[in-house]
Amino acid sequence: MTEMPTFAEEELLWQKGFTYIAGIDEVGRGPLAGPVVAAAVILTPQGNFPWLEQVQDSKKLSAGKREFLASHIREEALAFGIGVISHGQIDSLGIVGATRLAMRIAVEQLSITPNALLIDAVKLPEIPIHQKSMFKGDCISRSIAAASIVAKVHRDALMKDYDVLYPEYGFGRNMGYGTKEHMDKLDEIGCCPIHRISFAPVRKAMEKNG
Questions:
Q1: pLDDT grade, residue 1 (50/70/90)?
Q2: In sequence order, what DSSP letters do the residues of 29-74 get, joined into one string?
């Protein structure tokens, strides 16, 4: 049975007097096209919501389950924020810099100022808030897992919109990741305006197609 994230990390902080704890995660570091998206979510220790028990790493959930949970998280969490960094900014900042910026924006978008952050894998020293970075945090912290779901659903919706504009690449199916379908199309016709030209496979396709 899959081990589910819990409130253990949050409980330690709540007991120390940190009232508002934001879980932060991102999606979209690996794709060849589209933005990187981060979300920040503040859950309440008083919330007795049945859906909370279903929250886990977004990659382990079906699309339908993610949509269901994201809707509840956005409606019933104390606060959530989303940061979106475009393909062009990724090319300028690098994927690590773009990811950190997306996370900072997500925190800034929260309607409640958090006094502690639980972050998946990344450190944000430029934010003067008590924080803990955890490897595979979306498998450990329920707040981080909730953020992973919100970020994934938001980015998938953006990529489906891009699929309408650039249907050749199958963005509605591959979400910009380098699937065989996507790579074959890159090789055949080159890149489109939302491809990350700093990523090696995209540069190679550009060179081949002039």
A1: very low
A2: SS-SBS-EEEEEEE--TT---GGGGG---GGGS-HHHHHHHHHHHH
